[in-house]
């Protein structure tokens, strides 16, 4: 209940901000030059608000039997009042319909279908499938549906990564949705464009630039496998096709290893395991094993020469190789 109250409070604050915020982010000064207007709310902020509203609807659906004074339908009506006001003040009314994460749960959808007023029902239906359908994985809808709890930020904070509701490119979307190759064909490799943090055991945490193998793309959340062999679901629209050059490099490289993998999110122990797997000297492993993956991947050649002069050239070569695989060398 506390989470619901906090979310409702954030939504209310944003609604008040939309009442006074300019719809255009620039205006001309007396010299005719454009300058950014104060108080302008970015697309990302509107997207985050729409995500909070969907998240709140999911919470109300989950807590319906435990909510009283006011009842769950009252919460729903208030949320739709807020949704109407935000859409009315939004510079682009289509932003709301583009918000695909989180999807509404079956309980939330059942609640909306039972209590929405005609005008609210019309608004809900007009927002399209991202608001009116629920992702279903297998027979057990609730236990196997990967759900996403959005991260919420204060107005002065910035997101760690753009929410997965980025602008869609129809050509790239079509490319992403191309049929899965058969087992006799090359594996389908895709590159992560935005960081995603798993919220349950069925999802997979990934970082921008990471290369994944797509195992199942029959649903809106795809089953993928990373270099370490870990599997999980992630939103399909944070992936892009692997660049042809990088695809070829991976095809002609040696068979994929299932040993330690170095990536920006690696912790010091994982970095140490990777260094040991590369057969670097004990001194090098000890010196660099205290770093995170992000710190090691961003070390400059001169820094490597100072810390581990004997292994510096080999380490630099392996780091450049890993950067290429992670898409950090572009």
Summarize the entry for a quick read.
The protein is α+β, with helices and mostly antiparallel strands and 330 residues long. It is 45% helix and 9% strand. Keywords: SH3 domain.
Descriptive report:
The structure is a single chain. The protein is an alpha+beta fold and 330 residues long. It folds into 3 domains: 133 residues; 70 residues, SH3 type barrels (Roll); 59 residues, Orthogonal Bundle (DNA polymerase, domain 1), CATH 1.10.150.50. 45% of the residues lie in helices and 9% in strands. The strands form 2 sheets. Strands 6-5-4-3-7 form a 5-stranded antiparallel beta sheet. The chain starts with a helix and ends with a helix. About 17% of the residues have low confidence. InterPro entries: EPS8-like, EPS8_2nd, Eps8_SH3, SAM/pointed_sf, SAM_3, SH3-like_dom_sf, SH3_domain. One of its GO terms (biological process) is Rho protein signal transduction.
Task: Provide the descriptors you would attach to this structure in a database record.
about 325 residues, alpha+beta, SH3 type barrels, DNA polymerase, domain 1, five-stranded antiparallel β-sheet, two-stranded antiparallel ribbon, 15 helices, about 10% strand, elongated, Eps8_SH3, SH3 domain, SH3-like_dom_sf
User: How are helices and strands ordered from N to C?
Assistant: HEEHHHHHHHHEEEEEHHHHHH
Number of domains: 3
Classify the secondary structure makeup into a structural class.
alpha+beta
Widest beta sheet: strand line-up: 6-5-4-3-7
Number of strands: 7
Head-to-tail CA distance between termini: 46 Å
The number of helical runs is: 15
Protein name: SH3 domain-containing protein
GO molecular function: actin binding
Domain SH3: 185-244
Organism: Sarcophilus harrisii (Tasmanian devil)
């Amino acid at each position: 209940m506390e989470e619901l109250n906090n979310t409702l409070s954030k939504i209310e604050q944003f609604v008040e901000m939309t009442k006074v915020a300019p719809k255009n982010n620039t205006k001309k000064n007396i010299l005719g030059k454009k300058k950014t207007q104060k108080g302008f709310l970015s697309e990302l902020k509107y997207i985050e608000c729409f995500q909070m509203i969907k998240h709140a609807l999911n919470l109300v659906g989950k807590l319906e039997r435990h909510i009283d004074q006011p009842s769950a339908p009252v919460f729903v009506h208030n949320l739709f009042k807020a949704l109407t006001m935000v859409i009315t003040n939004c510079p682009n009314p289509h932003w709301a319909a583009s918000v695909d994460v989180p999807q509404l749960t079956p309980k939330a959808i059942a609640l909306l279908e039972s209590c929405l007023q005609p005008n609210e029902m019309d608004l809900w239906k007009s927002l399209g499938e991202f608001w009116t359908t629920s992702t279903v994985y297998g027979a057990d809808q609730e236990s196997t549906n990967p759900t996403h709890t959005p991260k919420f930020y204060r107005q002065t904070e910035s997101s760690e990564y753009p929410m997965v509701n980025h602008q869609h490119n129809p050509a790239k979307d079509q490319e992403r949705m191309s049929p899965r190759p058969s087992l006799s064909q090359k594996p389908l490799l895709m590159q992560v464009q935005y960081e995603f943090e798993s919220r349950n055991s069925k999802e997979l945490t990934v970082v921008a630039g990471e290369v994944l193998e797509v195992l199942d793309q029959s649903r809106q959340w795809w089953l993928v496998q990373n270099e370490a062999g870990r599997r999980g679901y992630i939103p399909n629209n944070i992936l892009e096709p692997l660049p042809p050059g990088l695809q070829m490099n991976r095809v002609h490289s040696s068979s994929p290893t299932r040993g330690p993998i170095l990536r920006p999110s690696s912790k010091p122990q994982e970095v140490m395991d990777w260094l040991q797997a590369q057969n670097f000297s004990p001194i090098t492993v000890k010196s660099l094993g205290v770093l995170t993956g992000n710190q090691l991947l961003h070390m400059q050649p001169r820094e490597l020469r100072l810390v581990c002069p004997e292994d510096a050239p080999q380490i630099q070569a392996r780091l450049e190789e890993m950067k290429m695989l992670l898409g950090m060398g572009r």
